[in-house]
């Protein structure tokens, strides 16, 4: 650690890398005097290409995919950076975005972002960025005088009006979903109150306050006689922010809060920094801000053409930033607040002679700021900014809020406290804490559902990149602008995502209507919206399927035309016409989606959609009327049983379970049920006539669905861990995620049997409760001892364990009271 980092050590295995910065343009249209790229020790930009060539973009994307597949990463994060990325222009930017989407998204989730000064941002570029689901951060240092202190053109002119114009564009409803937030570089000569007010006025979803880059060789400017000016400046904003009720997340403050571990920002905390930079020439580099240390500080002597990500990840300068506490100097390791500040930003530790083996040059400020945060009264309950939350309507079809993979693995985030204060939108931290109890209220289930919808939208955008523009795509995007609820209803159908995944995994060699899901989706959305439209829809296996609506048998033809008009829709195919209207007897061949009469919600019996065959178990053929009616009645009764026995779980079923798929009968295994990670909102069950049994199966499988959706948001398990664990309910050793899934389902099943054990003559129920309790406890203990959990995962499992202990204690007390 003491000194510059040497060559890559082939014997060291780095952690997987999930974050990448692509320097797509190496020049800038501003001349900011605090820019680390042009104004600091490193001047390698002078010898680099002006822009990243298409072959370099493709090579980088292929390396990212190669690494993500090898490490089963569920999502990767790519930030377009510079220089100024908007200097690419609309055509150049479109080429880069199309390459990244087309190459990466068939294999893993892609979270695309861009950091810009905003000078060149216009409506055309906003539409482009929205279409490719790019979240945009804009650099602004506050009010005009503060911004003009550093962020100026080379001729000395202000950039403040241009940056504010860009922010005004991003606040518009059609672009609001692309607004990621504001990055503000701190200058203690600016008035912190005015800076804070100016940033809030732009209604950002998030604010990043960045300490100016400095080292021990080139320390930050400090007013004479002021030992901690940066802590004083930031502390003043923090006190106002708390007094205002935390109206917008400020990442530095959230990361330094009591109980936090610095997650969400590389500037503080001990979390591994799994990030690599790709320069315009394809060179792999370490974190970009290392350029403040010395010329060539960020270099690795590796590039995307000849070296995989794994090799770059083994570079000592990358590996040391993944070592947590062990990678810090002795002074930091002995510090009582090291878990929160994490030694500060890595480049800020540089000093000639001792290298990075030092505390941050901001050490005294960080300690003082933490003390200020700890001493600040909690203040008013947190509330969202007036317009800084989600847009008023669902985003345009290609947009992805919280990207995650369509594959059945996990995805990232961090940890926090439990239920958020009243009025604050639930974040992933509070969501994980709430779900760790085994339950989950309407807000938690809504967040899971919205995240799953965002994944489907991202997959849809990926499919559009593969299939190209079409009339169905244009209709769907038009409807999303004019009738967003209708589009959301269709895209939230559980089997839209599996359909997209299947097609993206194995695109048809010649395309064709059977390969394209868009016409049926657009047609169904038009019907829900009641909008006049005509859509050519495919006939698959002799039928037209309209997700959420039903299935029309159309034998002997391959094409059909669906027309939506007032009072319903009609389908023409093979010289025949079928009319479907509300309140009118259905025409021959039309099977509307059947629904169970469940009180308080709607549950479809899904036995027509061919994409339902995604459970690894044979699904039943389309049910006849008698069988469908019997299943509907059993479902309704089982729903009532769930509400009777475990009301909290009954409410989670109400909030999220939307479809039940009948499995084919199997006399050798009559009690079968399944969940598919890609089909959120649905479970599959074998024919069960007993509502008491079906209630247990529904609760069990819905636990899997909830946890799967959470794993698309929060990284609970180290995907690279080789640890296998034996559990009581399986004969084969299981990976950590499989153990966690089983334990989470059994936590709820324990609760069901515990409730039934309170009844008279309930010996069987008591035995079941004890068995599932023991299975769950032993599995959770094994997870905690196994070393395969992330920090957030350990917190989640400990909370599960505490919940189980509470329920076990209650059970013992009840048994004693009952004389058992």
TrEMBL record:
Region feature (Disordered): 377-429, 578-597
Compositional bias per record (Basic and acidic residues), positions renumbered to this chain: 399-412
Database matches in Gene3D superfamilies: Aldolase class I (3.20.20.70)
A single GO molecular function term of this UniProt record: metal ion binding
SUPFAM superfamilies in alphabetical order: Radical SAM enzymes (SSF102114)
Biased composition (Low complexity): 377-391
Keywords: Iron, Iron-sulfur, Metal-binding, S-adenosyl-L-methionine
Family matches, as InterPro entries: AKG_HExxH, Aldolase_TIM, rSAM, rSAM_sf, rSAM_SPASM_FxsB, Sulphatase_maturase_rSAM
Residue ranges of domain Radical SAM core in the record: 14-251
One Pfam family linked to the record: Radical_SAM
Superkingdom of origin organism: Bacteria
UniProt cross-references to PROSITE patterns, sorted A to Z: RADICAL_SAM
NCBIfam families, A to Z: mod_HExxH, SAM_SPASM_FxsB
Protein name: Radical SAM core domain-containing protein
């Amino acid at each position: 650690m003491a000194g510059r980092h040497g060559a890559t050590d082939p014997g060291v295995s780095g952690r997987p890398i999930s974050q990448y910065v692509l320097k797509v343009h190496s020049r800038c249209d501003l001349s900011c005097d605090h820019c680390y790229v042009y104004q600091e020790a490193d001047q390698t930009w002078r010898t680099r290409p002006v822009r990243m060539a298409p072959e370099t973009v493709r090579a980088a994307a292929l390396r990212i995919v190669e690494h993500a597949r090898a490490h089963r990463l569920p999502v990767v994060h790519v930030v377009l950076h510079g220089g100024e990325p908007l200097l690419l222009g609309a055509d150049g930017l479109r080429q880069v975005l199309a390459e990244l989407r087309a190459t990466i998204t068939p294999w893993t989730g892609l979270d695309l972002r861009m950091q810009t000064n905003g000078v060149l941002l216009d409506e055309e570029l906003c539409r482009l960025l929205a279409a490719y689901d790019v979240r945009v951060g804009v650099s602004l240092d506050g009010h005009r005088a503060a911004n003009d202190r550093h962020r100026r053109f080379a001729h000395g002119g202000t950039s403040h009006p241009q940056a504010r114009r860009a922010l005004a564009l991003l606040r518009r409803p059609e672009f609001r979903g692309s607004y990621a937030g504001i990055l503000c570089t701190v200058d203690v000569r600016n008035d912190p109150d005015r800076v804070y007010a100016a940033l809030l006025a732009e209604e950002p979803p998030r604010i990043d306050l960045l300490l100016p880059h400095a080292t021990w060789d080139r320390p930050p400017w400090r007013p004479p006689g002021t030992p901690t000016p940066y802590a004083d400046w930031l502390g003043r904003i923090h006190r106002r922010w708390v007094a205002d009720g935390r109206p917008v997340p400020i990442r530095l403050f959230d990361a330094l809060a009591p109980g936090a571990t610095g997650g969400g920002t590389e500037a503080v905390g001990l979390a591994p920094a799994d990030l690599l930079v790709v320069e315009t020439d394809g060179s792999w580099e370490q974190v970009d801000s290392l350029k403040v240390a010395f010329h060539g500080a960020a270099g690795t002597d590796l590039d995307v053409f000849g070296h995989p990500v794994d090799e770059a990840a083994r570079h000592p300068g990358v590996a040391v930033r993944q070592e947590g506490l062990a990678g810090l100097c002795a002074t930091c390791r002995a510090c009582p607040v090291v878990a929160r500040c994490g030694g500060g930003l890595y480049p800020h530790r540089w000093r000639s002679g001792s290298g990075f083996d030092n505390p941050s040059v901001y050490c005294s400020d960080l300690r003082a700021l933490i003390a200020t945060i700890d001493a600040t009264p909690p203040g008013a309950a947190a509330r969202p900014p007036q317009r800084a939350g989600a847009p008023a309507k669902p985003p345009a079809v290609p947009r992805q809020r919280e990207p995650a993979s369509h594959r059945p693995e996990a995805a990232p985030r961090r940890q926090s406290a439990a239920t958020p204060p009243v009025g604050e939108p639930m974040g992933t931290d509070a969501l994980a804490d709430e779900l760790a109890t085994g339950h989950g209220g309407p807000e938690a289930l809504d967040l899971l559902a919205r995240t799953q919808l965002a994944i489907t939208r991202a997959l849809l955008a990926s499919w559009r990149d593969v299939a190209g523009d079409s009339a169905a795509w244009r209709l769907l995007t038009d409807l999303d602008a004019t009738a967003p609820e209708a589009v959301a209803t269709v895209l939230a159908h559980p089997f839209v995502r599996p359909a997209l995944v299947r097609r993206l995994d194995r695109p048809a060699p010649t395309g064709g209507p059977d390969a394209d899901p868009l016409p049926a989706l657009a047609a169904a959305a038009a019907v829900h919206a009641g909008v006049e439209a005509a859509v050519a829809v495919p006939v698959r296996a002799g039928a037209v399927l309209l997700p959420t609506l039903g299935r029309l048998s159309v034998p002997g033809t391959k094409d059909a035309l669906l027309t939506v008009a007032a009072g319903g829709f009609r389908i023409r195919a093979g010289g025949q016409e079928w009319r479907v209207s509300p309140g009118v007897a259905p025409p021959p061949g039309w099977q509307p989606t059947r629904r169970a009469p469940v009180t308080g919600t709607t549950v479809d019996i899904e036995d027509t959609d061919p994409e339902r065959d995604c459970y690894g178990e044979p699904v039943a053929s389309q049910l006849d009327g008698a069988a469908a009616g019997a299943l509907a009645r059993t479902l309704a009764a089982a729903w009532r049983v769930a509400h009777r026995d475990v009301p909290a779980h009954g409410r989670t079923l109400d909030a999220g379970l939307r479809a039940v798929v009948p499995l084919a009968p199997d006399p050798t295994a009559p009690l079968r049920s399944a969940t598919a990670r890609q089909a959120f909102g649905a479970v599959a069950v074998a024919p069960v006539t007993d509502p008491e049994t079906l209630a247990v199966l529904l609760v069990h499988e819905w636990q899997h669905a909830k946890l799967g959706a959470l794993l698309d948001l929060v990284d609970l398990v180290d995907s690279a861990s080789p640890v296998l664990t034996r559990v009581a309910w399986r004969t084969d050793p299981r990976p950590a995620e499989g153990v966690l899934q089983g334990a989470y389902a059994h936590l709820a099943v324990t609760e069901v049997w515990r409730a039934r054990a309170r009844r008279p003559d309930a010996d069987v129920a008591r035995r079941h409760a004890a068995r599932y309790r023991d299975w769950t406890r032993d599995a959770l203990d094994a997870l905690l001892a196994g070393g395969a959990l992330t920090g957030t995962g350990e917190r989640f499992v400990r909370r599960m364990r505490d919940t189980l202990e509470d329920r076990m204690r209650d059970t013992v007390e009840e048994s004693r009271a009952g004389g058992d």
